[in-house]
Amino acid sequence: MFYSNSWTKCLICLIFITSGNSECPIPQVEGNQNVVLTNDALLKNDFPEGSEGTFQCANGYMKEQGSERITCTSGEWSTLELICKKKDCGAPKEMPHLTYEFNKEGTLFGATARAICDKGYQVQGSSYRQCYATGWSGRSRCEVVTCEEPIDIMNGMISEKPAKQFPEYGDVIQYSCDEGYTLIGNKSIQCNEDGEYNSFLPECKDVNDIPLKPKTISASITTSTVPPTIQASITTTSTVPPTIQVSGRHHGIGEHDINAVTTNAAAVGSVICIVIGPSMRLLVSDAMETLRQNVNK
Hints:
Elements: H1 2-20, E1 35-37, H2 39-43, E2 52-57, E3 61-65, E4 69-73, E5 76-77, E6 83-86, E7 98-102, E8 112-117, E9 121-125, E10 128-132, E11 135-136, E12 140-144, E13 156-160, E14 172-177, E15 181-184, E16 188-190, E17 203-206, E18 229-233, E19 243-249, E20 252-259, E21 274-275, H3 285-296
Antiparallel strand pairs: 1-2, 2-4, 3-6, 4-5, 7-8, 8-10, 9-12, 10-11, 13-14, 14-16, 15-17, 18-19, 18-21, 19-20
Signal peptide: 1-22
Domain Sushi: 22-86, 87-144, 145-206
Protein name: P-selectin-like
């Protein structure tokens, strides 16, 4: 009976001790990728009653608010209050003729930036940079575009060029010809933003070898819409003066009308010509000859 009561008391005591010293499992934070356990917490295998688990912000994140510690109570962990946010790399260092184009993340951890140079400049180094936990990756700079060294032309020379060996974007090279030669093409070329010149090299030609361009003479003729009219009258010694009327259309003789012409009329006098038209004179020799033939009959 004595042994039975002793074992009962010991069993009750063991149950009390066990329940009062419950351990917690390894702490975990589900659905939150911004926080992680510290190395000290990861090295522990047991988390007895009252022990603590410590967390920290993940790589690329920094503490915004809340405690990093949780406590094991009755086999359960307290709620983690740590809140972390992305680190901000800030704008990359300013460089001459260089700007950046950022993605939707801006300058926060994980963001990317594309280096863009001004017109006439090209990127040297990293074309893209990324925001890491330690800052922006790589380095970028912009260097001016250069063209090939200009060359001389036959029977000519470079009259003006920059002092540097390789012309830079925007530089101009001037050409001229020797005496007795004339320049064909552009007298100057310029270095473009793509590293090429904006024009072919000019040529110098002997002035005697250049064919003369034929001259073109332009003329315009205006035709009057009013038909020309010619009236010729002859005064004779006859009592019945003969009259000849000639009407012309479009610079031609249209019809002849002869009235009161006698066979014995002696024609003396003069012919009067009236011309209506654009500065045109019409000879009526045919009409005169006809008149003379009729008079001499």
